Amino acid sequence: MRILPALLVLPLLAGGCVVKTAANIVTLPVKAGAQAADWATTSQDESDRNYGRKMREKEAREGRERRKRDKECRAHPERCENDPR
């Protein structure tokens, strides 16, 4: 007697899995397309972060060049007499 209710419930449980799997298969192309679009575009936050990084690198490079020029001017002041600074 106990086996009969278990046999009746088993298809219902398995049917829910099939529906869920079918829903995942149907939505997969949409999710993949959205992910591809996300990878292909740059958000404003990413753009700001990249711009800030680029500016910090530029400032660091300019600072190194300025220090090198100052060191050269201290070592050879005759070369820097016409320095427009």
Explain the overall architecture.
This protein has 85 residues and is mainly alpha-helical. Helices cover 82% and strands 0% of the residues. It is built from 2 helices and no strands. The protein has helices at residues 3-40, 44-75. The radius of gyration is 34 Å and the shape is rod-shaped. It starts with a helix and ends in a 10-residue tail after the last helix.
What global shape is seen?
rod-shaped
Rounded to an integer in angstroms, the radius of gyration calculated over CA atoms is 34 Å
How many beta-strand runs? 0
Low-confidence stretches: none
In DSSP terms, counting alpha (H) and pi (I) runs of 4 or more, how many helices? 2
List strands and helices in order, with pairings.
Blueprint: H1 3-40, H2 44-75
Descriptive tags:
single chain; 85 residues; mainly alpha; 2 helices; 0% strand
What is this structure, in a nutshell?
The protein has 85 residues and is mostly helical. 82% of the residues lie in helices and 0% in strands.
